[in-house]
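$ ./design --mode recover --in tokens.txt
reading tokens...
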């Protein structure tokens, strides 16, 4: 099975490094200097510096080179996935979506976008608690591969899985995607707690109440509760809410320290998906009547509509209710 990776950011490069252990792997980078840097120095100096890359990774800045692949691992920022797939040379037999987000314009999960752009391809999702630099270093990692047809997922798992890259199968595609998208917004909130010095109790409460929001939204979208409580949901939420290695957590930490969102977002080369997911997630939750007060607070902070103190006061003034709600 010939693998092509679409997206030469940190995660696309780390996934190419994993796939290269099973044979030559094409890696498309949007920036010609990234493809050139990998070809010349075997390092992605821009997005994954310090990691020596396998000789079995063949970098390219020309998407049409991926026409010969059987499967594409799609690892663009969520908001650019549709445009990249639309400019790609046809579609392969299978797409494995590895990005985390919700398309802002359409409100669609990424598997819905992919099915519109590649109608005949099998569309699957790979998601979980996976910092790129740890995966690239070969540290133990476990993730969820969600697909409607188990045999198709098994074939890709056989090609990608390694002892330190453990892939669990699921048939809950929407569930795997909701967890990855929502946790990025909640990680921003956890970063705010850190930056504002609100303490470990507050962070734990936020993870638990944030998980309740993720579960309410996921169930409304047809996800299963056990998927949301698994690697791609709770697992990734715990990881991303615990470390400044997370770009989303770091963004939130800056907000908590009082820096304006516009300043924090300016000149970013790396993507903090939660900043793009927050407004669309808030819009969808309000349209669908799903209560998501933490998501709304993050959206207000990012848009500059409210200060940290104002959203904190609002959250703490919420009525005390039964925990299961
Ligand atoms: N970094 C991680 O640890 C990690 C882990 C799991 C999932 N992800 C997800 O993978 C996706 C990609 O993140 P990343 O960390 O690899 O990226 P990154 O932050 O390392 O790099 C930014 C990427 O965005 C691309 N980009 C910028 N503008 C673009 C445009 N107009 N069109 C297409 N591409 C554009 C760049 O080419 C580059 O590949 C995100 O959805 C992220 O949530 C990341
Ligand atoms: O750095 P972040 O916040 O984009 O998180 C990276 C991965 O999604 C963690 O699983």
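writing sequence...
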């Amino acid at each position: 099975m010939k693998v092509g990776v679409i997206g030469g950011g940190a995660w696309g490069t780390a996934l190419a490094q994993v796939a290269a252990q099973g044979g030559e792997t094409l890696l498309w980078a949007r920036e010609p200097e990234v493809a050139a840097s990998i070809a010349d120095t075997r390092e992605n100096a821009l997005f994954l510096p310090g990691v020596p890359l396998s000789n079995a990774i063949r970098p390219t800045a020309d998407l049409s080179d991926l026409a010969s692949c059987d499967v594409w691992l799609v690892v663009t920022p969520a908001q650019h996935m549709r445009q990249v797939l639309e400019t790609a040379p046809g579609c392969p037999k299978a797409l494995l979506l590895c990005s985390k987000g919700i398309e802002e314009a359409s409100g669609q999960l990424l598997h819905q976008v992919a099915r519109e752009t590649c109608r005949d391809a099998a569309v699957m999702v790979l998601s979980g608690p996976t910092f790129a630099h740890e995966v690239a270093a070969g540290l133990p990692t476990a993730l969820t591969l969600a697909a409607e047809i188990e045999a198709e997922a098994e074939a890709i798992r056989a090609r990608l899985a390694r002892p330190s890259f453990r892939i669990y199968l699921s048939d809950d595609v929407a569930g795997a995607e909701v967890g990855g998208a929502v946790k990025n917004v909640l990680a921003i909130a956890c970063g705010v707690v850190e930056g504002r010095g609100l303490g470990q109790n507050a962070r734990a409460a936020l993870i638990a109440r944030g998980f309740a929001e993720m579960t309410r939204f996921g169930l409304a979208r047809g996800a299963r509760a056990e998927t949301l409580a698994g690697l791609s949901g709770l697992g990734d939420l715990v990881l991303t809410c615990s470390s400044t290695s997370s770009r989303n957590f770091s963004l939130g930490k800056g907000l908590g320290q009082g820096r304006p969102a516009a300043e924090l977002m300016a000149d970013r080369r790396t993507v903090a998906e939660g900043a793009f997911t927050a407004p669309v997630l808030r819009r969808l939750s309000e349209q669908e009547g799903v209560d998501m007060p933490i998501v709304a607070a993050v959206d207000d902070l990012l848009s500059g509509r409210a200060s940290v103190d104002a959203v904190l006061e609002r959250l703490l003034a919420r009525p005390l209710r039964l925990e299961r709600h």
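exit 0
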